[in-house]
Design brief:
The structure holds two protein chains of two kinds. Chain A is an all-alpha fold. Chain A has ten helices and no strands. The longest helix of chain A is centred in the middle third of the chain and has 24 residues. By secondary structure, chain B is mainly beta. In chain B, β3 and β4 form a beta hairpin. The chains are: A mainly alpha, B mainly beta.
Chain lengths: ~210, ~150
Amino acid sequence: MAENLTVTDLVEAAGSGEQEAWNRLVDQFMPLVWSVTRTYRLAGRDAEDVSQTVWLRLVEHLTDIREPRALPKWIITTARNESLRLIKANRRTLPLDPLDDSTMAVGADSSEVEANLLRAERHQALRDGLAELAPRQRELLLLLVADPPISYGEISRLLDMPVGSIGPTRARCLTRLRGTTAISAFLSAERVADDTGGDSHDLAKVGGD
Amino acid sequence: MTSPRWEETDDSLLSELSAALRNPEPVPHRMHDAAKAAFSWRSVDDELELMLLVYDSSTADGAVVRSSFTSAPRTLAFEAGALCLEVEVGSDDIMGQLIPPQPARVTVVTAAGTFAETEADETGCFQIPRPTGGPVQVRCATAAASLATDWVPL
C-alpha cells in the first residue's frame, strides 16, 4: 500500500475490504476519538465503550462517507453523541444532589468543550494533511517540529540536504501542506464559518440524530 | 493588532502542526486492538441490510430528568425501509418486536461474537438475554431479508 494516501483513498480501500487500509484509518483517527472522550473526561471502560461503538459503527458506514472532510466530522459527531449519552446514563445512576452541578457542567456543551472539539478537528486535519505529503516532505516537517528541537546542521546530515536549502524547502513543504485535501477542506469550511458569522463546525447539526 | 490565523504564517502553521503531533497521553493498546478487530464485523453479505437507529430514549429530549425515581427501561427503535425493530432493554433481557409483525431468527452479537439467539414469533415479538455492557448489534433474519442494527452500547 502506498505511503501517502488521502483519507478518501483509505475509506474507499477499507470499504472494499482491505484490512490494512482499515488499520491505517484506526491509527490515523484513534487520537481524534481519544481527544473527544478526554474532552468529556471519560476514562477507562467508558472511553473504551465509546471508542468501540465508533469503530464498529464506522465499519457499517464506510460506504456512506464520500467527501474528504466527512470522516473526521462523522467520527467527532458519533464519539460526541455516545460520550454525552454515557454521561447522562451515569448521572442517572448517581445519587441525586441538587446542590452539586459539577456533573452537569461536564455534560453541557460549554464553549470550552466546543473549543476543544474544534482544536481536535484542526489537529486531525493537520495530521491527515501530513499523511498526504510525499515521504521526504513529511520527514522534513517531522524533524522541524521534533521535541527537543533538532538543529539545521543535524537535519541537513539526516536528510542529506544542504543547510542552505532547508529554509526554502520548509516553505515549499508548508505550502504543500496547506494545499492538501484534508487541510484545504478544513480551511474552506472555517472561512465559510467566518464569513457568515455562523459556525459551520457546528457538529450538533451533523448527523446528530 | 491581532495574531495571525494558525495557517497564515509558516511559523504559526508549523507550531500548530507541532501541537497536533503531541499526544498528551498515549491511547491504550487494547483500544487500538479492539478497533482493528472491529473490521472483522464488516458484512461481506451484500444482502445484509443495515437498520439505522432512529430513536433512543436515553438521548431523546426530556430524558435528562434528574430524578432518582425514573428507572424506566431504555427503549430503542431501528428502521430499514418499511421494517422497524423496537426493543426495550431490561436488566437481564432485551424484549423486542418487529413491525410489521413477522417471525424471524434473532441474534444478539457483541464485539466478541454471538451472544444469544432466539426466534421471534408470528407477532414479531421476542425476548433474548443481554450482555452487561459494551456495544451490541441485533440481527434479524426474516423470511424476506437479513437485517442488522447499528451498534449500540448497552
